[in-house]
TrEMBL record:
The name this protein goes by in its record: 6-phosphogluconolactonase
Pathway the protein takes part in: Carbohydrate degradation; pentose phosphate pathway; D-ribulose 5-phosphate from D-glucose 6-phosphate (oxidative stage): step 2/3
Keywords linked to the UniProt accession: Hydrolase
Source species of the chain: Magnetovibrio blakemorei
Residue intervals of the Glucosamine/galactosamine-6-phosphate isomerase domain: 10-215
Transmembrane segments: none
Family, similarity comment: Belongs to the glucosamine/galactosamine-6-phosphate isomerase family. 6-phosphogluconolactonase subfamily.
Principal EC category: hydrolase
Catalytic function, reaction form: 6-phospho-D-glucono-1,5-lactone + H2O = 6-phospho-D-gluconate + H(+)
One Pfam short name: Glucosamine_iso
EC number: 3.1.1.31
Amino acid sequence: MLRWHSFTDGAHLEHAALNMIQDAAQTALTQRGAFHIVLAGGRTPQRVYGALKDLTTDWSAWHIYFGDERCLPPDNTERNSLMAADAWLDHLAIPPAHVHVIPAELGGEAAARAYSQTLAGVDAFDLVLLGLGEDGHTASLFPGQDWGETQTAPAALAVSNAPKPPPHRVSLSAQRLSNARQVVFLITGTAKIPAVTAWQKGDPLPAAAIKPAAGVDVLVDFAV
């Protein structure tokens, strides 16, 4: 089930995303005492993360994961983990042990194995944030590649031939991203309209492989 939320501009979309994160966190902390969130990369999430610094919550009960990562050194500015740290995580009292960075500097295969082990004891994520590429990719799951949709797929996949640089990456599999209480896509820019249209038509895109039981909320800053 896809629930489409259309906004007049990116600022309104980001405000709605912030509210969704806040609500999901409050529900998880009240019901389960911890909040497990998967972060997306990109400029739109970066602005949302920056706004999260002002949120009043029990940061010690947050657990941070990443939907994908580029196989680059930890201090490379293209790393999703560094972006999230600079925009948000380094400014708050989240225990370092609760920030589960993908060790992509080890190389795709080794990092995917290590992250699958990290996630082995984690139940359903409370919230997964994702973006959408112009080709319909999400996280680092690209068209024409293995998305890890089966129940036996590993939690994390090594990607060795991504069509956009760098080619070597690690991505959570579609089945692991789908194991979530809530999934929210943040999509900005009219260049994404063809991919959204293809998704709406039912084309076999990587984004369409994310199928949590509760359905998916898709936030866009254009009419759908």
